[in-house]
Structures are given as structure tokens and as C-alpha cells.
Amino acid sequence: MEIKRLHVGKRLSEVAIHNGTVYLAGQIASDTTQDIIGQTREVLGHVDRLLAEAGSDKSRILSTRIYITDMANFPAMNTVWEAWVVPGATPPRATVEAKLADPACLIEFVIVAAQA
Length: 116
Known about the structure:
Layout (H helix, E strand, L loop, with lengths): L2 E6 L4 E6 L2 E4 L11 H18 L7 E8 L5 H11 L8 E5 L9 E8 L2
Parallel strand pairs: 4-5
Antiparallel strand pairs: 1-2, 2-3, 3-6, 4-6
């Protein structure tokens, strides 16, 4: 089966598609001056854009891994997440407190979705 990659870079591809499944690389905010609410909104916007490019959308997410640098930000992140997800199509999810590669990044999302 063919593997299609989008936004291929030297270090990683932003998206890989195989057998109708879309795998997103870890998505982080570009504007790291924002607080957890702003970074979460920005990252979920990246997710929306990449899923659309791959022929999918947030209602088709199969799993989500969230890496957050401080669990004190968990409630605020959840407020943004709950406003973003599709009611009745909330995906399985795990949230882990982690030190991210860029200390200015407060959150990172890793998404797997089905194509439409």
C-alpha cells in the first residue's frame, strides 16, 4: 500500500496517510508568547487545517495524545478542547505532563484520524 506524506521536511513530515488512516506529527503553537488557551486554540487550528488537507476532519479522529508542560493548565486546556470537539464524536484521549523540546511551548497534540 502507498504511503502519502504531506509537508515533508528534513526532520519530519507533518502528515502521513496510509490505508485510509491519517497520522499527524506533534502539533505545537507557532506563537509561543500566548498562554495555554491561546496555544491550544492555535494548535487545534493547525489540526483542523492538516486534517482537511488529508481528506478528514475532527469528527473522524481516532485517538489523541496531548502533552502538556504543567497540569495546572489542564482545566484551561480542557475548556478549549471541549468547545472544539464534535459532540458525540469525542475521540479516545490521553493527556500526559511532559517537558517539551521547546520550553516556550505549553502543549503538543498528536492526532490519528480516519479519512472521510
